[in-house]
């Protein structure tokens, strides 16, 4: 009987990530509305810019949600390796959106620096404190899920929350300087918005790079390749390990391996040995979805006939 996916499976983790993305969307709708209204009535451009960034996060969370839902689909005739690539593609789209938002808000911030300013209202500081607390809690919860699942898209969504918290801290500092310094420091609000844009752009690039690596099938970092080679070498009859390629597809890994065996064994024995190698490798990591084993004659030891 086929087992239904649980939260410990790649498909289950993708569905959990999609649910978390929906929660993030709901939180961003509320916070974006509150920040834009507070910035408008509180004469704070940095708070308005922060609200715009949160509004853009709504679109980002929607893209992440759609990407995770699509990536959770099982393999089919046209996608025999599954739909996992939708996950890093969603992360790339969101990262590019973050970079574009940083440029737009930065241009507006520079314009505001040279415009006359009203002093921001003190109540805007209370709004920002609440935002920082909520966003940091969301970041920690979503980032933990993303790391446990090994999902680039979920971690991208988590860093949206951390970026929002950082921009809110920058806004808090800018508004505080404007309130304490008086008329001479009223532009500190816009300068804080410009600094927040630098943080947004830095995080956008940080999120874009690993997603691009995954789409390009860059070999995964870490010990997974060495563990695969070590597991294959423990199988009786494997005399050498030649090529070993590992690529990430969504939350799963696919392995291509060449093993050297005694050239005199039968086809049946070679077939059974390949299955034994595949089973040994898959036991090292539950996220290894499939292993393609190529059996070839081992290279003769130098000095032997």
Task: Describe the structure in your own words.
- The protein has 305 residues and is mainly alpha-helical.
- It folds into two domains: 10-215, Cation efflux protein transmembrane domain (Alpha-lytic protease prodomain-like, Up-down Bundle); 224-297, 2-Layer Sandwich (Alpha-Beta Plaits).
- It is 65% helix and 10% strand.
- It has helices spanning 10-41, 45-71, 86-113, 123-149, 152-181, 188-215, 224-233, 267-282; strands spanning 240-249, 252-261, 288-297.
- Strand 2 (252-261), helix 8 and strand 3 (288-297) form a beta-alpha-beta unit.
- Helix 1 (10-41) runs antiparallel to helix 2 (45-71), helix 3 runs antiparallel to helix 6 and helix 5 (152-181) runs antiparallel to helix 6.
- The chain is elongated and about 90 Å long.
- The chain starts with 9 loop residues before the first helix and ends in an 8-residue tail after the last strand.
What portion of the residues fall into strands of 2 or more residues? Answer: 5-15%
| Largest sheet, strands/sense/barrel | 3 strands, mixed
Question: What is the CATH superfamily of the largest domain?
Answer: Cation efflux protein transmembrane domain
Q: Calculate the terminal CA-CA distance, rounded to whole Å.
A: 51 Å
